[in-house]
Design brief:
Blueprint (H helix, E strand, L loop, with lengths): L1 H12 L2 E7 L8 H15 L5 E7 L9 H18 L4 E6 L3 H15 L3 E6 L13 H12 L2 E4 L2 H11 L6 E3 L21 E6 L8 H10 L7 E6 L4 H10 L6 E5 L3 H10 L2 E4 L8 H8 L3 E4 L5 H4 L6 E3 L5 H13 L1 H18 L2 H23 L1
Parallel strand pairs: 1-2, 1-3, 3-4, 4-5, 5-6, 7-8, 7-10, 8-9, 10-11, 11-12
Helix pairs in contact: 3-4, 4-5, 7-12, 10-13
Length: 380
């Protein structure tokens, strides 16, 4: 016991210290927050890795433009933290729109204090060809150019962002999202008389395809095996309940509202299918958690979704805003238990092979060390 205490103290003494900027804090209701809550728990349990991470919320939980009330306090706290503590890295989780401006300001302050910055890019909403480019486009480019390293979530995003900004692909490091293994015995067998469990985790918005999914459920034929659907997420829950009633789905569909992470993980374990019909995504944590729990997946082929949902192996790809196509995919997997069970087992294997948390944290640590080594060489 004494030796273990000494080892833990020694590890902390030589730890690389990182201040990680997340939008809403670790208890926030978003994918980045979920991702780094996994990372935080892992680091707390593995101090021997030599990585100590603290977190600062940049925008808070306010919706829409409400972030402007929180950000000044976050900005002042950043200055105070950099002035009173020693950090090796400031890790900036950045996206598009207002996120780019916030991270630009925070990066400026970090550089004034002589702290190396690493940018972890999670954005997906870029202007199309021929569209007017908003101001954040140039701001985000500056954030990228000033960073010691730029992290993207998969090959798709490395190629896309490099082409968009005419930057060399080697400037971008790929680190796939990872989640803690909360279901090591998955996939659990299902009893013959159990209804097929369907699960959606995300904001109840058009961007996430929640309305399309509700319409798709109403299109399912009556002869299918019994099924139940759970929607877990924030949004206009009352309106969605009303629409489900109108569509005749009240007996089959449940809306939980927002669910804390500890409470949502059992819902993944109960799910046979996890569905995400989004219009755009980066690499959604909900699909990784679904794969970890051994669920078959149905989602749109946007962003890096095909990295985790391999068509015909662990799930089916659908098109955005296609209620009929979504219903067809649901019908196929609800009605074909052998195929569904095959997909469930494959999902778990894909998670183990590519999206475990240890791999992600190890990759981040390697990037931090390389960024510091590159900076030391440039100074010398």
């Amino acid at each position: 016991m004494a030796l273990k205490v000494v080892q833990n103290v020694t590890a902390r003494l030589r730890s690389l210290r990182v201040l990680c900027i997340v939008p809403r804090g670790l208890k926030g209701r978003g994918g980045i927050e979920t991702l780094f809550s996994h990372v935080d728990e892992y680091l707390q349990a593995h101090v021997q890795m030599g990585l100590e991470m603290e977190f600062l919320a940049s925008r808070g939980d306010a919706s829409g433009a409400g972030w402007v009330l929180h950000f000044p306090f976050a900005f002042l706290k950043l200055i105070w933290l950099l002035a009173t503590r020693r950090y090796d890295i400031v890790h900036l989780n950045a996206a598009t729109n207002a996120s780019a401006w916030r991270k630009w300001l925070m990066q400026v302050v970090a550089r004034l204090f002589g702290v190396t910055t690493v940018v972890h890019f999670h954005g997906s909403a870029f202007p199309g060809s021929g569209q007017k480019q908003p101001g954040w486009v140039l701001v985000l480019r500056q954030v990228f150019e000033r960073a010691a390293a730029i992290i993207v979530l998969g090959p798709y995003w490395r190629g896309f962002v490099a082409r968009f900004y005419h930057l060399p692909e080697e400037r971008f490091c790929i680190v796939a999202n990872g989640v803690a293994d909360f279901a090591p015995q998955a996939p659990q067998p299902r009893a013959e008389n159990e209804p097929v469990r369907l699960f959606f985790a995300g904001n109840l918005t058009d961007a996430k395809g929640a309305g399309v999914l509700l319409v798709a459920l109403a299109l399912l034929p009556k002869h299918l095996p019994e099924w139940r659907m759970v929607f877990a997420g924030t949004g206009d829950v009352a309106a969605f309940r009303q629409e489900a009633d109108r569509l005749g789905l009240a007996e089959r569909v449940t809306f939980t509202g927002w669910v804390a992470r500890d409470a949502i993980l059992p819902l993944y374990c109960q799910a046979d299918l996890v569905i995400l019909p989004s219009r755009n995504e980066v690499l959604p944590v909900c699909l990784l958690e679904g794969a970890c729990a051994g669920a078959a997946l149905i989602a749109t082929p946007v962003g890096s979704v095909p990295d985790v949902l391999q068509e015909g192996k662990n799930g089916l790809l659908i098109q955005p805003d296609d209620a009929a196509g979504t219903a067809q995919a649901l019908e196929q997997l609800i009605g074909d238990k052998p195929l569904r069970e095959q997909f469930r087992a494959a999902s778990r294997q894909i998670y183990e092979d590519r999206f475990d948390l240890e791999t992600m944290v190890g990759a981040l640590l390697d990037i931090y060390r390389q960024a510091l080594a590159d900076r030391k060489r440039s100074i010398d």
